[in-house]
Design goal:
The chain is of the alpha/beta class and 206 residues long. The chain has one domain: DHBP synthase (Alpha-Beta Complex). It is 28% helix and 21% strand. It contains 6 helices and 10 strands.
């Protein structure tokens, strides 16, 4: 049975944030809110937790995980960012975008796309996520909370608890989320490529 924490979206309670991060460090699979839909997350490099997320989502090894980062400087640790990418990232973060970038050696190989050696990167505009990342001190390894056979990500905390209470270790209730996932842009080529149109407006970058 999962634990359910109600955290204030604008003023996250430090005690509850610390409890959530303690669970992450102990190997938990966590459901948490973002500025788009809810997400599944675990600690970076936790192989067992990552495999649990893959099983829950029923994704294969070609599916990119996303590293949810605090800011642009943290992105540069895990992804190769040239001047062109930096300008685009600066304009679009924080916000409801996921960027596909070439991974650095700081990213475990099993998290990279096996052929392209890429990783998804994201900086959400969400107070709970910011507090979690500040306490954790590293990115959260994440993916969108959309279950097999569902057309849309889960966004209602009560519905999430009903459906996932036996499959995850912690559910953070930060209020109702968005129904749409992030917009995904691939920045590995000369020009940005739109992979998925979601909540973020990609038109300025294409």
């Amino acid at each position: 049975m999962s634990r359910f924490l109600q955290i204030h979206p604008a003023n996250p309670q430090p005690r509850l944030i610390a409890q959530a991060v303690e669970r992450l460090r102990a190997g938990a699979v966590v459901v948490y809110p973002t500025d788009s839909s809810y997400a599944l997350g675990c600690q970076l490099g936790d192989k067992a937790a990552a495999e649990r997320i893959r099983t829950l989502r029923q994704t294969d090894r070609h599916h990119n995980f996303t590293l949810v980062c605090r800011d642009l400087s943290e992105i540069a640790t895990y992804a190769k960012v040239d001047n062109r990418c930096y300008r685009l990232l600066k304009a679009a973060t924080p916000g409801p975008f996921t960027f596909i970038l070439r991974a650095t050696h700081e990213v475990p190989r099993r998290l990279q796309h096996p052929r392209r050696k890429t990783i998804g990167i994201r900086v959400p505009d969400n107070g709970i996520v910011s507090a979690l990342l500040a306490e954790l001190g590293e990115p959260i390894m994440s993916c969108t909370l959309i279950l097999p056979d569902d057309d849309w990500p889960l966004h209602d905390p009560e519905d999430i608890e009903e459906r996932l209470r036996h499959d995850v270790d912690l559910i953070i209730d930060g209020g109702s989320g968005q129904r749409e996932p992030t917009t995904v842009l691939d920045l590995t080529e000369d020009a940005p490529q739109l992979i998925r149109q979601g909540l973020g407006d990609a038109s300025p970058f294409l």
